[in-house]
Amino acid sequence: MPRKDPEDRRAYQREYIKRMWQRHLEHSKEAMRRWRANNPAARLARDRAYKERHKDQLSASYKRYRLTHPDIRLAISRRRRAREMGARGDVTRAQWLEILERYERRCAYCGVEAPLQADHRVPLSRGGTHDIDNLVPACGLCNRRKASLSEDEFRTRLANETKLRRKIDDEAG
Questions:
Q1: How far apart are CA 161 and CA 173, in angstroms?
Q2: Phi then psi for 29, rounded to 5 degrees?
Q3: Is 47 helix (H, G, I), strand (E, B) or coil?
Q4: Angle at 18 between CA 16 and CA 24, to 5 degrees
Q5: Is the dihedral of CA 102, 107, 113, 116 positive or negative?
Q6: How much is the pTM?
Q7: Residue 116: what are its φ and ψ, rounded to 5°?
Q8: pLDDT tens readout for residues 111-138
Q9: Cβ-proximal residues to 122 (8 Å cutoff; 6+ apart), any chain
């Protein structure tokens, strides 16, 4: 008997099973890759059937993901909107984080530290691009107020509102 010690024998068997399992796993993965490549229609039907059977579980999982990754979901929806409007350009998550750091994670218009959204300097509706040079971080309030104004038009509007507020304060005080 090559392995008389029971502990040594168990350790050898565990290693043997691990090696065999690894070999089986690699073989199975390769077989599955071949099947998916050769049967795209069957794979699509299988995936649809799975999603139909597990609608509730998948819905809950998708909802959890959206709640825990709002920045990723927002970036995806912005890219989709830009694509639908035919705007050229694309901004990666790393580039967006770089923009946030450049503005010290503050709104480019009012300077508040709040959840930030990507705002287009030249709006997509007016022919702007979805390039890194056309994006600034904006708080939700500023982004909604800016709407389809260009950055210069919105900054002029903010400056006029500030002058008006100061004038009212001077008259009152």
A1: 18
A2: -60, -45
A3: helix
A4: 105
A5: negative
A6: 0.58
A7: -105, 150
A8: 999 989 889 999 988 989 989 999 999 9
A9: 128, 129, 134, 150, 151
